[in-house]
Amino acid sequence: MNDFKPTPRRSAALLVSLLAASAALSACAPLLIGGAAVGSALVVTDRRTTGTQVDDQSIELKAANRVSQAIGDRGHVNATSYNRVVLLTGEVPDEAARLKVEQAVAGVENVKSVVNELAVMGNSSLTARSNDALLTSKVKATLVDAKDVQANAIKVVSERGTVYLMGRVTEREAGRASDLTRSVGGVQKVVRVFEVITEAELANVTPSPVVEKKP
């Protein structure tokens, strides 16, 4: 899909529609889809283009279908896409399934690369998944409270106590976000899946503040 530049209002509406479709499909699928719902404020501050954000949502949906076709319900797989890079987390029964999932997702349209963090082991329990969801929330809250990190630019994924950080960030931001994440209780390990950009590149992707003109 080529990048396009609709108005912010239309962009937000489109993303909301896609996310609603994602929620409806995930209720029927045996897989968990990575990525949290985003509002119009997050769309504006996201460091990806609007087209890339839409691509990432589409990739996650298609990846779920491909994984389901590849291994059925023999495993617990999360596919999280950021800037067309897909992170695979969860559990599969054997190495053959692990490679099969990676190959299936790599074949999804617009996927640039796949980071395969699938573990060969039995599926995690519902309790463990609930703990991971809570851990993700705690890490996100810590990033927001820090003030010196743009939390909206970082996607957080937790799996069995390991926290994966995705996003387009500078080396300075990557280090700070990693340190903050390690400080959260319950985090056993931090894995950086960042796309590191320069400070100059950051200046080009950071939206300019809107200045209200007074009469």
TrEMBL record:
Kindly indicate whether the keyword Signal belongs to this entry. yes
Q: Which InterPro entries match?
A: BON_dom (IPR007055), Lipoprotein_DolP (IPR051686), Transpt-assoc_nodulatn_dom_bac (IPR014004)
One Pfam family per UniProt: BON
Q: Give UniProt keywords alphabetically.
A: Signal
For the keyword Transferase, the answer is: no
Which Gene3D superfamilies does the UniProt record give? 3.40.1520.20
Which regions span the lipid bilayer?
A: none
Domain BON intervals: 55-122, 131-198
Return the protein name: BON domain-containing protein
This protein's species is Aquincola agrisoli
Its taxonomic placement starts with:
Bacteria, Pseudomonadati, Pseudomonadota, Betaproteobacteria, Burkholderiales
